[in-house]
Amino acid sequence: MTHLHAGLSPETIEKARLELNENPDVLHQDIQQVRDMIITRPDIGFLRTDDAFILRFLRARKFHQADAFRLLAQYFQYRQLNLDMFKNFKADDPGIKRALTDGFPGVLDNRDHYGRKILLLFAANWDQSRNSFIDILRAILLSLEVLIEDQELQINGFVLIIDWSNFSFKQASKLTPSILKLAIEGLQDSFPARFGGVHFVNQPWYIHALYTLIKPFLKDKTRKRIFLHGNNLNSLHQLIHPDCLPSEFGGTLPPYDMGTWARTLLGPDYNDENEYTHTSYNTMHVKHSSSNLERECSPKLMKRSQSVVESGTLKHEDQHENENTQPLLALD
Predict the structure, then answer these.
(1) Architecture of the domain delimited by 89-271
(2) 85 φψ region: left (φ > 0), alpha (ψ -120 to 50), beta (else)
(3) Start and end of every CRAL-TRIO domain (predicted)?
(4) Each residue of 159-204: pLDDT tens digit?
């Protein structure tokens, strides 16, 4: 086993082999072939090219080397084209800190039954007098940078749940095509994460209308993994088990505490030595518990003031669609 697999369970290594075409015997050759392509893009500053960094791009593109290099190039090109977004790109930047404190994003302590990290967005919490959409996007990207350091998440991926309850038409009117395109470029086209699904719940009609704005920017593969559940939590539970979800989503866990993830990034262990900055890409590390509890659905006590919705019926993960669920979009 290569040192790049240190800390991974045999089961996860086997999953990477079966699902991502990862072969430990030729892993270093695969990485070097991607690195050798860098010379073809002298217009891009590749600020980090170590083995572990390139490996996450190979995993995100199932070890198709040309696709992995394209993603690597787009990652740095996106940062070059949007330099202002990545200035002071760390958790204690005032704009990022406000967004994190307001729960953008929420990150559950537990993972789902496939080992995927569950991210939450409570859209109605967007106070537009307090947080710009750009700062929320920056907070999400920074959070992903922290989380993607975990090799298991590089392999297992993420799921995102967006709760649109009480999200007003006025708030929605601020989601212009230009900023939605910026978000899609940053997440779909320029970041090495595997998104197994994006789930909308309690979405109003005007969120459906927003889809027509973003559709031209979405890849076909991307359109297949957004699911619009409306208020039908049963269809959500077919894909993410209730015992992995807080009560806002009909789950068996306590309500989500909006400050959970912000405290992780801004807690007493956060200091100048582990800040993630745009110029150095010295990535922050989140301390992961070695306990099995971290991978089970049993997070710390959480609380949230929003009303609790009623739990639905658990069904099998393989049922990706039914008459109450509309798949629209995927990120992978």
Answers:
(1) 3-Layer(aba) Sandwich (3.40)
(2) alpha
(3) 96-257
(4) 999 999 999 999 999 999 899 999 999 999 999 999 999 999 999 9
